[in-house]
Amino acid sequence: MATKKRAASKTSGAGSSRTPRAPARRKTPKKKAAASAGLAPLDCVIDSPEPALAELERVVTKTGGAVLGRYRDPLGGHPHLFAVVPIDKVEPTPFQRDLSETHHKRLAEVIEKTGRFLDPIVAITAPENKGGFWTPNGRHRLEAMRRLGAKAITVLLVPTREVAWQILALNTEKAHNLKERSLEVIRIYRGLLEEDGSRAESGFAFYLEDPALVTLGVCYEQNARFAGGAYHPVLRRVERFSEEPIEDAIAEHEKLAKLTLEVEANVSAAVAKLREKGLVSPYLRSFVVARINPLRWIQGELPSAEKVLTTMRDRAAKFNADKIKQEDVARAGGGVPDEE
């Protein structure tokens, strides 16, 4: 109990005496000398079965699939399988971006025209109660092949299930908007709750990227039209990853999400009053949020996320649209458009 209380003091909620830190900037790896890292081609070959892959090979065989080869990845030297498995044994992980009908249909057209499936999907074993395999980043390719009636699909099988949580970080080439990123993060979070809920939230910081995205993800779950862009700059200043188990830490995010949605309801009402006055700008929401945000006047130690959001909610409820003129909005400049 004492340990849990000490851990609780490190969370981002109310009562924290530590100053929330700004999110750490990601360090871009320095460019290394050519051909100075990883394995040579012949070193990637695995001639005979090894313990790390034995169970994975059994799962492939049990599901009616076929192992085509074993290899070590050329950078980290981790063992993987190259296999073909029945397509009905593969499902997307439940925490990735929503399926795009346009994307997977167009992809199906291209695959059908070429008559070749040349881009294997990454896969891991699904949880025991699910059976088969999960793909963390091949949802559209999987659906395209299903649309074409394929019986099987080629996969790069990774024996380490934790890679499923790393995929969000690996997919840096995809242009996620804030809503997509937040929904992906909260889906990963809920998946982690099922798989490893006793582990400290801070231990998943690399996969989740930003604690504010967890809170915003809860908001988007409850309101798909939520304007998260107006609140992300506020939340990222006052939230940080907790040292508590994620099964406990999620309650703090849900509490903050509830407060954020209350702020948004009051802000939306204020924006409606400004529009009734005839004020025109795509940045009215950002203007109101800036006016009620207490952080712009605070230097040094920041208040808790709960206190900041409570202050914003109450200020938004008392927002006096009659005192605002069009030139006030114009002087405020841009920000996040209301449609964001």
TrEMBL record:
Residue ranges, annotated region (Disordered)? 1-35
Where would I find the ParB-like N-terminal domain in this sequence?
Answer: 83-171
SMART domains listed in its UniProt record? ParB
Question: Which intervals carry biased composition (Basic residues)?
Answer: 23-33
Q: What is the protein name given in its UniProt record?
A: ParB-like N-terminal domain-containing protein
Recorded source organism is: Labilithrix luteola
